[in-house]
Known about the structure:
The chain is α+β, with helices and mostly antiparallel strands. It has helices at about 55-65, 160-180, 220-235, 285-290, 295-310, 310-320, 320-335, 340-360, 370-380, 385-400, 405-410, 420-430, 435-440, 445-460, 465-480, and strands spanning about 5-15, 75, 80, 90-95, 100-110, 115-125, 130-135, 135-140, 150-155, 190-200, 210-215, 245-250, 255-260, 270, 280.
Amino acid sequence: MEYEAVIGMEVHAQVITASKMFCGCSADYASAPPNTHTCPVCLGMPGVLPVANQAAIEATILTGLALNCEIPPFSKFDRKNYPYPDLPKGYQISQYDYPLCINGYLDISVGGQQRRIRIRRVHLEEDTAKLMHVPGGSLIDFNRAGVPLMEIVTEADIRSAEEAYAYLVELRSILRYLGVNTGNMEEGAMRCEANVSVRPKGAQEFGTKVEVKNLNSFRSVRLAIAYEIERQTRLLERGERVHQVTMGWDEERLQTVFQRSKEYAEDYRYFPEPDLPPLELSREWVEVIRRRLPELPAAKRARFIAQWGIKPEDAEILAADRAVAEYFEAAVGAANGVVAPQTVANWMVVEVLRLAREAEGGLEAARVLPKDLVALIQMVAEGAITQTVGKEVLAEMFATGAKAEEIVERRGLRQISDADALRRMVEEVLAQNPGPLQQYLEGKQTVFAFFVGQIMRATRGKANPHIVSALLREELEKRGGPAAPTP
């Protein structure tokens, strides 16, 4: 029997705000000593009252709008009760039956096929403290407790590990575009859980759901879901039952492992938070927030392709990160039609992003302005320097901030296009390599590339490759060789 997976995702994303969700403690706790960003409110001391963070509420609504959600006119906070040591109050302030955002969707592309993943809800809550397990016990750091946390929940519309991966990549890109979350899973700013079940293909009823936790990277998500699908399929094929449990992902053994029996909503004893008033969201306020929406990744990809003819695979890369997309657009603007947008895209995708990954601070901290990149590309296009030299010059531009023209002049890197000088080099290379020359004369045309490479090496990549190829072809034919291959 053939089986299919049914997957829903729950993503927790820390909201970038100056203070915590219900108190004035700083939410920037990453480098702080343990338990220094705390106060009586986030520690749940008797007699204190929480106050909702408006910036976090607006960021959550902005996220919901970006995910095509409805924003109901009424929302409220609830108490979610469970006695874990990472909750100082013994309960979490969350949202249950009246979330901020409902009924949205996110379109993804997998293997060239478009898929729509429905978003059930986006709600706001407070993060928990951080536990650190050590020999003989556990340590707890309350700095994270109370940081604003969005939970983004899908319907069970995902059908494979690859679709889950694509969904998370697109979601992270949107959150970063909005500036509401860093998207850094490895740092815990974005955490996800997958609800995985398997059923006979074509069946309408869902199988037994298993929740998979401890997914701390995109790689872990893809591997864990694929493993859990295979595990459940094997159980069903043997006639065994799948039990509704919570599994963790063991990164070392690359397998899911049992953690605990799955809780149900009633286990949390939700009830309205008595210390916080309900939220009434006016249409006017929501529309003010909507006006803050930037052009999102999918729209930007489509525009790059339609407006500038960028190859879809390049548009995918260029639009994934807002800083990269804005840099690219600024470069195309600076080119003003003198350099083709696709040529700019080629340099961005292959060279600029590689150097940005290696540089401290990435592209946003790069010392190469978009107009300076275009000036370099134009020098290559006009034949002032070769492509190889251009790459070398760009690396120095990233390292020093110097302009292309300055580097080229200082290091004497201008392309050699003098036909007489290049002809002498061609003759010298042929004279110095009698063995390969004889191979070519006997019909081994692949040796042609060897000769070109020798000339380019002798000129440190400065020789005009088109002139070199033409002169080499001419000299070889003089010596009775076969017609040289055309480039």
